[in-house]
Amino acid sequence: MAPNTMTFEQLCELFNYVPKNRLLDTKEVADILAVHPSCVDHYRVRGTGPRHFKPAGTRRVWYSERDLLFWMASEQAGNVNGQFFLCYGSAIALLSQPRSVKTLFKSTGVWTLDELDRLAPTTVLEGLKNPAPAKDRET
User: Which of 12, 51, 60, 120 is at 20 to 30 A from 101, Cα to Cα?
Assistant: First the structure.
């Protein structure tokens, strides 16, 4: 199905996106795209990003969820790929993608901190060592 014929609900399903039913700011858009907020600003300035608007008298930029998802499904977003790059000095390195090693699922709702405190140490955290544990204080 062509992206321009898909409904908002179909796009949400395609991108596994749960609508917030409100406008999104630049940081939220960056989080969804897995890019730095300055990348979203760059897309906006170059006119290659999702449709946006800036209310009169403000410097804030807002994006509708619908416009963002339609843009993500378009050819314009073809270069947004979620890859991680490390840039330092005169080097640019493509980093390997993270992959799931262990997963803990919850059938309904979202995790609470108490649930994670109870379950994570014996499941997804099992066998991991803290590389920088707190030092014992001498009394």
Answer: 12
- For 85, the enclosing helix (H) or strand (E) is strand 84-88
41 secondary structure, DSSP code: H
- When divided into structural domains, the chain yields a total of 1
CATH number of the domain that 72 lies in? 1.10.10
Question: Contact, 58 vs 97, CB < 8 A?
Answer: no
Question: Comparing C-alpha atoms, which of 106, 75, 61, 54 is closest to residue 4?
Answer: 75
Q: Confirm if 15 and 82 have CB atoms less than 8 A apart.
A: no
How far is Cα 122 from Cα 116, in angstroms, rounded to an integer? 10
Query: Which two tokens mark 40?
Result: 């979203």
